[in-house]
Amino acid sequence: NPESQSHDEL
Amino acid sequence: MNIFRFAGDMTHLISVLVLLLKIYATKSCSGISLKTQELYALVFLSRYLDLFTNYISLYNTLMKLVFIGSSLAIVWCMRMHHAVKRSYDKEVDTFRHYYLVLACFVLATLVNEQFTLREVCWAFSIYLEAVAILPQLVLLQRSGNVDNLTGQYVFFLGAYRAFYILNWIYRYFTEQYFTRWIACIAGIVQTALYADFFYYYFISWKNNAKLQLPA
Fold this sequence. Notes:
Chain B: It is found in: Endoplasmic reticulum membrane. With about 10 residues, chain A is mainly alpha-helical. Chain A is built from 1 helix and no strands.
């Protein structure tokens, strides 16, 4: 889902 | 995960390891700004709030723990370790970094993706990271000559976000993934702040000379 996608970076 | 993102994370990790090596090997933090280290500790603490709630991967969790742990360890060392804190240039490290924290916090409450605690803290950490290097760059300019490990530390720290920008461009063209414009703009500003340092770093590398920043 876009949520985890956008927060998958450090 | 693409090669640019991985290179960025590794470059960031190397910068932390170089700084830890400098402090551990020389038992000195001369030329290092405590204020920049405190700002980075705040950046990681405010960005990785979801460390235990939002599991993405072992790699992601490990890297977050390393960045939080190392930044806190460095701040602790520079404040408490008997030998290291003696070498801290308190009178040169005078940047008013609390103003940076306040400005970034106000900006984060005004400009964010959603007005939720997590998103405001995330935006705050992104803005703060963009300017966190300022006390360190000011200290280097004031102290003139830069020792090798400190120069390498700043170089890798600046290079990591440049790799992230390449990662965002790559993901845009390959995954139609639009990175968040807050991260993108702040990342560009952050990398641009290193521009003059990169220039003098390249000159010193080309002439095989000591890194000198103009006062």
